[in-house]
Amino acid sequence: MIDSDRFVRDPDDDSLRLECGVFGVFGVQEAAAVTALGLHALQHRGQEACGIASFDGSRFVTERHMGQVAESFSGTDLVKRLPGDHAIGHTRYATAGGSFIRNVQPMFADLESGGIAIAHNGNLTNFLKLRHELVADGAIFQSTSDSEVILHLLARSRKARMIDRFIDALAQIEGGYALVALTNKKLIGARDPLGIRPLVLGELNGKPVLASETCALDMIGASFVRDVEHGEVVVISETGVESLRPFPALRSRPCLFEYVYFARPDSVVNGRSVYDVRKRMGMRLAQETPADCDVVVPVPDSGVPAALGYAQASGLPFELGIIRS
Fold first, then answer.
1. Structural contact between residues 42 and 91, judged by C-beta atoms closer than 8 angstroms
2. Residue ranges of the Glutamine amidotransferase type-2 domain (predicted)?
3. What is the enclosing helix (H) or strand (E) of 130?
4. Which of the residues are catalytic?
5. Which of 21, 29, 99, 185 could be disulfide-bonded to 48 (CB atoms 3.0-4.6 Å)?
6. What's the pLDDT tens digit per position in 96-152?
């Protein structure tokens, strides 16, 4: 008899995954290559593993690797390995346990209504409860990732349309998440009702792009359109971009650590420059907690703007005393 409790608590349990990166494009030539570039800009959000799923009009192809984006998706044959004009990608960072390929995203399922690939950043707080219920009902899991729970919920939904199945699955999960999914006809993005995890909508040569941060848009030469709102589901197809609001409006509660540590300083999160926020935090710290010292030395890299703000507000010299290899 399999002890599901022991399985969930295995060392490679991926239930606490706060700082991953997601990316998606629809209708873009050589979508996998563009996605690889976007993931490279989101490498800071996850350096343990990465993956890309593409669709060429007839079939899905998924490629997942341990390691970083540059060493996994830099080959000249990338667009041959992952053909198509639609793709999503993911960089993985697990805060608990080891890294195993079975937990790497995007995850793919071939449902009766068609294939779907999914990648998400966040933490589903009712993951264990849902998993226990699904296993008790006969579900067979191939990983310990909470992302697979979403796929099982999709598969078991009684809704007819894929987008309705997707919303039905989201209605059952709790926690903070930013999620992208690719079907044979649509690219879907969703943000949790509290807006805990970031997700932005961009445009590349008239084609929509979804990404965890604006720095990924900058990397591929895309323009920023807007933040995906908390509780919003964005449905992208050949007919355009549709915005759905299937959940009750809640007060936005974005994660403070996106500004403190997670996000890249050249990104804009929820309309605020990460660099400016960190620098102003340093300036406020100097006002509230002045230090009797000779020099301000940052801890790279996320601490640099805050240290600069502290130095400027306190009139102390700013010097680099710690160098990253």
1. yes
2. 20-239
3. helix 127-136
4. 20
5. 99
6. 434 689 999 999 999 988 999 999 999 899 999 999 999 999 999 999 888 899 999
